[in-house]
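Slide 14.
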Amino acid sequence: MNGVKRFIIFVIPFLCATCFVHTSCGQAPVRTQTNAPTDVGLLFFQVGEATFSQQRWREALEAYQKVPQDNAKYAEAQEKIAAVKVKMTEIADASSNAPPASVTNAAPAVAGVAFKGKVVIEQNAGEGDIRRSRSNILVWLTRTGLAAPKPVEGLKLEQKDKAFVPKLLVVPVGSTVEFPNSDAIFHNVFSVSKTNPFDLGLYKKPKSSTHTFDKPGLVEVFCNIHQDMVAYIYVMNTPYYAITTTEGAFEIPNVAPGEYIMKGWHERAPKLFEQEVEVKAESPEMSLTLTDDPELANKKHPRKDGTPYKNTSYDSDGGAGGY
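Slide 15: predicted structure.
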């Protein structure tokens, strides 16, 4: 049916306009060429004003532009050229602002909300950061089907003054972390974590090395020379996470409303905190309780080969072992 309709609308008038004009009923048709382009252009403009595609308007524009200056309808053709150009611009603008076909039928976007809360320490005993401060506690939201965040560039875990800076680094899965050595002595950064094991070898200032973390989970980072050098890298497969302030406050911005599992981690908490939560526009501030285990502060780790450290005191040149 569409083909027949197009034939009637476009082809038949086109033939009539370009080839023959009937001077009167019953007379033989007389061939004319002078006004044919103008007539074709008028046909396009009148029939297709509301429905023409960009290609049809382009054809109409070309027809008007072929009208010579000595033609009686030249002035009218120039007006039509201006009108067609406006119409073509409107179509182009509408096309550029239209959403992609893949998301045209998607549900309307929902504005994210800030998810706030505070960490409470249940057993505040022993020495260490978690007693003096409630900072460096990681809080995140997760659920089934949640899209993983994009990898982030420019992440660093520095070796400085025989310590890792920062002590806790959160990285989206797939991100690459740089490990610059700012000390004039050797360090050997390594991890024996099940998800992201690595060994960067020996190097000192100004050298650096990198590692890409392609699996989510906790990565304990050590130096094979200096036992007191400990850091934590948490590789996340959720975009919703935050690290607490010294008062234990946290805020995760732009969270899509819905149901989640809220989790919390700290180096001296014996296990992860987990709680079901619902995020909505009027969500109250959440309270997250972690247990402080002072024994974890005294936990010793072996070297990368599983043997104990021979000496825990080192001089400015690297100390025992010739480092």
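Speaker note: The longest strand covers residues 113-121.
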